[in-house]
Amino acid sequence: MTTISINWIIKQLSVRKTEGEFSDVVITAVWSCRGSDGTYGAVMTGTSSFAPPSGSFTPYPDLSEAQVLDWCYANGVDKTAVEANVTQQIADQVNAQVVTLPNPWLPPVPPPQPEMIVPPMLPQVEPVLVANDSSVSDAPAA
User: Fold this and answer.
1) How far apart are CA 117 and CA 99, in angstroms?
2) Quick check: is 88 in a domain?
3) What gap in Å lies between CA 99 and CA 70, rounded to an integer?
4) Which distant-in-sequence residues (6+ apart) come within 8 Å of 26 by Cβ?
5) Is the alpha carbon torsion for 59, 62, 63, 67 positive or negative?
6) Domain count for the chain
7) 0.70 cut: is pTM over it?
8) Does residue 73 fall inside a structural domain?
9) pLDDT of 96-142, one tens digit each?
10) Using one digit for the tens of pLDDT, what is the confidence trace for 12-65?
11) Which domain, by its residues, includes 85?
């Protein structure tokens, strides 16, 4: 079995400018879980919402991606289930049981034709060479 690498990221944060005594309070995060086996890849993206802070508060500039991801996991994102889903999406690509076929009511697309070389429309004619005849001259006749 091929190893699948999983990577979680926070794509976007939405903040409330003022929440009680706090400023720039994160209220939603858009997360993404990407997986890849080097050939195939899959992704799940979602949004998590957060209640106003109670107790400790981390100022916005001091937040880390890991901290926000932990908030997502604590607020309903089932990390194990999401990673299993991404892994299954990749497995489904490796062992494709579902494929896309052309619509049966459309005519088949013909294969490309080999490139044809079209001969010239006019026959090639060699120019007639004029012999060096001394009787032909630009000089006036005597």
Assistant:
1) 38
2) yes
3) 37
4) 13, 14, 15, 50, 60, 63, 68, 71
5) negative
6) 1
7) no
8) yes
9) 877 788 899 998 888 888 887 777 677 667 777 766 655 656 666 65
10) 999 999 999 999 999 999 999 999 999 999 999 999 999 998 888 999 999 999
11) 5-94
